[in-house]
Amino acid sequence: MSGPVPATEPGWLGTRWTRLNGPGRVAGVDLARGLAVLGMFAAHLLWIREPFTWTDASTWVAVVDGRSSILFAILAGVSIGLATGGRTPLGGESLRTARVKLIVRAALLWVIGILLILTGVPVYVILPAYALLFLLTVPLIALDSRTLLVLAGTLAAVMPVAQVALDDLPLWRTTSGSLLSAVIGWHYPFTTWIAFVLAGLGVARAGIGRIEVQLRMLGVGVILAAVAYGLDAATGVAEADERSSYLAALWTGRAHSTGLLEVLGSGGFALAVIAACLLLCRTVAVWVVLPLRAVGAMPLTAYVGQLLVWAVVASAVLGRPGDLAGFRELDPLAPFVLWTVALCTAWALLIGRGPLEWILDRSSRLVATASVGRVER
Predict the structure, then answer these.
(1) What's the confidence (pLDDT) of residue 5?
(2) Are 192 and 159 in contact (CB under 8 A)?
(3) pLDDT number for residue 18
(4) Which residues, 6+ apart, have CB-to-CB distance to 97 below 8 Å?
(5) What angle do CA 36, 347, 283 make, to 5 degrees?
(6) Which residues contact 68 (CB under 8 A, 6 or more apart)?
(7) What SS3 state is found at 90?
(8) DSSP 5
C-alpha cells in the first residue's frame, strides 16, 4: 500500500508567478499603479496644449495631466495601509517596526528623488514630496478607516483654502525658495496632498478587497469628479484669471493648481479609477492586463528608470538632458511605454520584486530589525 504523495515545492518560475498573482497581492491595485506610472510617462513626454474636457475627445489625452500623480498619491496611501495590517492596523512591536520601515523608505525616496533632480531632466520629480508624505503618515497608520476618511475629507476641503496663501509666499520667488521647492517637492505640496495619502490609507483600512467597498469607492469617486468638474466647467476661471484674486486661485480645477475643484475632482477621479481596476480584476480581464500589473508591481523602478534613460538619451542625442522640447519632438512615449511594459513583465515573471523595491524593502527591514533590537536591550 503506497503512502501519500509528498507535495512538491514550486520551482523558481512558480514562485515568481505566485508573487505576482497570489493572494499576497491585490491585482487591481497593481493595475491602477501601472496606469498611474504610464500616465505620468505621458504627462512628461507629450505636448498637452488643451485642458481635459469631457465633451471634446481631442483633449482626452490631457486626462493624464495632474491626475496621474494624484492617482499615484492615493495609491501610496493604499500601499501603506495594506503593508501595515489592512483592515486591522498593526499594534505593539509590529506597529513600531512598521513605523521605522516607513521612515527608512521615506529617507531613501528623498535621496533617490534628489539624485534624479541632479540629472537635469526637466520634470518636477515627485519623490521628495512622497518622502515628506510618508513621514507625515507615520503617526497616523494606527488610525481606523472612519477616522482616516473623515480626516482626509476635512483636509481636502480646508487645505486648498490655505494653499493659495502658501503658494503666494514671497519665499518661492527667491533663489533659496526655488531650491527649497525642489528639495521638498512643492509642485506637489504636502500640506494639501496629505489628504490624498490619507484617503488611500482609509480605503485600505475599510477593506479594499471587499466588493462593497469597491462599489462605494466607485460611486463616491464618480460623484466627486462629476460635481467638481461640472462646477469648474460652469463657474471656474481661466488660468490667467487665477493670478488676479484669491477666490479665482481657489475656485479652479486646473491640473497642478491645488485648487479646491482640482483636489475634489481629481481625488474623486483617482478613487473611481482604483475602484474600476479592482472590479475589472475580478473578471478574466485580470490576465489580459497582467503586463500592466507587472509595471504596477514595481512602480519606483519604472519611474526612476524612465528618467534615467531620458537623461542618457537626451544627453547623447540632443547634447543636454534639459531640452524638453527637443526630447518631446523625438516622439519617445511609445518606445518608453513598450520597453517599460516588456521589461517589467519579464523581470516580474523571471526574477520577482523590482530592483529598487527590493532595495527599499531590504534596507527598511535591516534598519527596523536593528532598531527594535536596541529597544529590547
Answers:
(1) 44
(2) yes
(3) 79
(4) 368, 371, 372
(5) 55
(6) 35, 36, 39, 40, 42, 43
(7) coil
(8) P
HSE at residue 31, side-chain half, CA atoms within 13 A, is: 20
CB neighbours of residue 24 within 10 Å = 9
pTM above 0.90, yes or no: yes
Cα-based distances in Å from 341 to 12, 34, 61, 244, 299: 22, 9, 20, 44, 11
149, 219, 237 from 225: Cα distances, Å: 17, 10, 17
Give the Cα separation of 44 and 2 in Å (integer): 64
Closest CA to 190 of 150, 169, 170, 162: 162
Neighbours of 224 (CB within 10 A): 22
Q: How many residues does the chain have?
A: 377
**CB contact at 8 A, 298 and 108:** no
For residue 325, which amino acid is it?
A
Contact 65, 43 (CB under 8 A): yes
What are the φ and ψ backbone dihedral angles of 233, each rounded to 5 degrees?
-65, -35
Determine if residue 319 is left, alpha or beta; phi over 0 gives left, psi from -120 to 50 gives alpha, anything else beta.
left
Cell numbers representing residue 304 in the block: 526612476
List, for residues 110-142, the tens digit of each pLDDT value: 999 999 999 999 999 999 999 999 999 999 999
Which stretches in the chain have pLDDT values below 50?
1-7, 376-377
**Residue 284 burial by CB count (10 A; 0-12/13-18/19+): exposed, middle or buried?**
exposed
Distance CA 193, CA 74 (A): 9
C-alpha cell recorded at residue 236:
471656474
Give the N- to C-terminal CA distance of the chain in Å, as an integer: 55
pLDDT at 9: 56
Q: Which residue is listed with cell 528608470?
A: 305
131, 104 in Cβ contact below 8 A?
no
By CB atoms closer than 10 A (0-12, 13-18, 19+), residue 234 is exposed
